[in-house]
Specification:
Blueprint lengths: L2 H15 L4 H16 L8 H6 L4 E2 H6 L11 H13 L9 E5 L7 E5 L1 H15 L8 E7 L4 H7 L4 E7 L8 H7 L3 E4 L1 H8 L2 H5 L6 E4 L6 H11 L4 E6 L2 E6 L5 E3 L4 E7 L6 E8 L7 E5 L2 E5 L12 E8 L4 E3 L7 E3 L1 H12 L5 E7 L2 E6 L5 H15 L5 E4 L12 E3 L6 H5 L7
Parallel strand pairs: 1-13, 4-5, 4-6, 6-7, 7-8, 18-21, 19-20
Antiparallel strand pairs: 2-3, 8-9, 9-10, 10-15, 11-12, 12-13, 12-14, 14-15, 16-17, 18-19
Bound molecules: zinc ion.
């Protein structure tokens, strides 16, 4: 089937899936998983079928990379091909594409896609975001570290135009081109969107996209407020990993899980009913198998049905990686988890939007605060009091924020103690739908 037809089909399906009932979503997931896993339908529930598969994590997926892809390629080989594809020196006869994903921890992951999978991905993402009337000639700008055929193939539909801007080089090198392009849809990491808004070029000629999408990093509420003012539109979060296109925010702000293409189970963090790690089974991909893979992102589940009317599971936020959760003082020496959005809400008002900052925790009772601008004595005192109240920590150590390379992912909170997050993993409940 020609890719344009595939994109069209996926687009129509994604549009329709927004109105699916919960029963329709669950039936589609069960059928999808049965087909993907290749087991006979013996009437078991989806949870029972999933429980028959073992849970792996992203690290295991990397180590056993060759067993989890249909072409038996190793991670080192896939990396090489991804680098060649990036340099434009590689073309696979089967149309396979090797894309690098920007990992926060460790080297970038590689996702392998067939032409059919790319077509379905493009149709799905367009269907989730744009009505048919918004499609023709729509200019999309992608601010990405690694371009990928996953995205550039979208241009070939001739319905939308997609341009990639390489954020591994400083903003000044591409900001004028971006502003001339005047995209209707702008997609990038929140920190880059914020840095872009602070540039002189943007201040002279601000961008006014119809749709502003923030991915690859947590979209902190304080940053979302800043972006809303700068771009005159509310940014919507998009949650994507090499394990799949997991969720995208609706106009009401909830991230709806793409349950038309995957199943997400949740491993809740002990007694906290709302914080969980996703366990993903993607039944739409065949080139790379994602079966009950636990991601190391912590999400906050949304407690109420979303006002937009969608029955797809809603997340209030993707708060960050496991390593972004700090350890506060708790009872009997057990740490209390202090979540990134809780800290950001308490601290960003004190630090202000104009000051870039980072908090690191090298030991349980040591907090380091690094800032781009030296804070006033009053700011320091308020911040110390807030940190003590939230985490029970003593007064922090202060220092300057190290200059960032453009290719570095921005992390606002960095826990260095318990680097493999053993304490958090030890408190996870079994996965459940
Ligand atoms: Zn919604």
């Amino acid at each position: 089937m020609a890719s344009l037809a595939r994109i069209g089909l996926a687009y129509v399906r994604a549009r329709r899936s927004r109105r699916w009932t919960r029963e329709r979503i669950a039936a589609g997931q069960r059928q999808g998983v049965l087909q993907a896993v290749g087991v006979r339908d013996d009437g078991r529930s989806l949870q029972a079928i999933l429980d028959g598969l073992s849970v792996t994590d992203a690290g295991a997926l990397r180590r056993g990379f060759a067993e989890h892809n249909a072409i038996g390629i190793t991670l080192a080989e896939a990396h090489l091909l991804a680098e060649q594809e990036k340099a434009g020196t590689y073309r696979d006869r089967r149309g396979l594409s090797f894309g690098l994903s920007s990992g926060t921890e460790g080297p970038p992951g590689v996702f392998i896609t067939s032409p059919a999978e790319r077509a379905r991905y493009i149709g799905t993402i367009l269907g989730k975001l744009l009505a048919p009337s918004q499609l023709p000639g729509c200019r999309v700008a992608l601010l990405l570290r690694h371009d990928n055929r996953l995205y550039s193939d979208a241009s070939r539909t001739r319905l939308v135009r997609v341009r990639h801007f390489d954020i591994a080089v400083p903003i000044a090198a591409w900001v004028d081109r971006l502003i001339d392009y005047a995209p209707a849809v702008l997609i990038g990491p929140a920190s880059i969107l914020a840095a872009l808004a602070r540039s002189d070029a943007f201040e002279r000629r601000p961008l006014r996209p119809r749709l502003l999408l923030a991915g690859a990093e947590p979209l902190y509420p304080s940053v979302a407020t800043y972006l809303t003012e700068a771009y005159a539109t509310v940014p919507r979060a998009i949650y994507q990993a090499s394990e799949g296109f997991i969720a995208v925010a609706c106009a009401a702000g909830s991230l709806h899980v793409n349950e038309d293409v995957l199943v997400a189970e949740w491993q809740r963090l002990g007694a906290d009913p709302w914080r969980a790690l996703p366990v993903i089974t993607d039944f739409s991909r065949t080139t790379q198998r994602v079966r009950r893979t636990r991601l190391s992102d912590v999400v906050k589940l949304a407690p109420v049905p979303c006002p937009c009317g969608s029955h797809h599971t809603a997340l209030a936020a993707v708060e960050g990686r496991l390593g972004d959760i700090l350890y506060g003082g708790g009872e009997a020496g057990e740490p209390r988890f202090v979540f990134p959005f809780v800290l950001d809400a308490a601290l960003s008002g004190i630090m202000g939007c104009g000051n870039d900052w980072q908090i690191r925790q090298p030991a349980r009772d040591v907090i380091e605060v690094a800032t781009a601008r030296v804070p006033s004595a009053a700011e320091k005192s308020r911040l110390s009091a807030a940190l003590h109240q939230i985490g029970g920590w003593p007064a922090p150590c202060w220092g300057p924020l190290a200059p960032r390379r453009p290719e570095d992912k921005v992390r606002r909170f960095v826990r260095l103690v318990d680097p493999s997050s053993e304490i958090i993993l030890g408190r996870l409940l079994p996965p459940s739908l």
